[in-house]
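task queued by scheduler; priority normal; single chain, no ligands, no partner chains; default sampling; output format set to structure tokens
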Amino acid sequence: MKGKIEGVQKIWNRYKYVTLVVLIGAALLLLPEGGKTEQAAQQTETLSAEKQDLQKEMEQILGNISGVGQVQVLLTVDSDGERQLAQNSELRYSGPVASPEDYSRRSEVVLTDGGSREEAVVIRRVYPKYRGALVVCQGGDKADVKLAVTEAVAALTGLASDRITVAKWQ
């Protein structure tokens, strides 16, 4: 029994630092990233709302084209797009600059007063990449209406005409 304990102690003494580093790394991986997940969820909600707003705007605009009549638009996306938000970052460290003993970083999203509520400052935006569009309208069986609607949707979304379908409303 004493030989087994000495063997375990020998292994522990040899690998205790490696084991400690692995355990600390695993613990850090399990910690939540705080505001980042909340920020990502808020960004996804905003992008989804913007897509719905674009569909509604397109319905209003397309409805004004001669012969279209009542209209409904559905857009599908390959990627939802992305917004990069401005952030204030603060880096604190102790010890010499060349080899600090300890450091921490803190970041906050920059907000601006948007009237009734605060809004994040967007410094870069990648717009959604659309996969296709379906437009259902009362004049969807007429060739001239189909052409006008297809050209308008292509201009607004960047889609090629083969990715846009115009159908007649029931």
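post-processing summary
- The longest strand covers residues 71-79.
- The mean pLDDT is 81.
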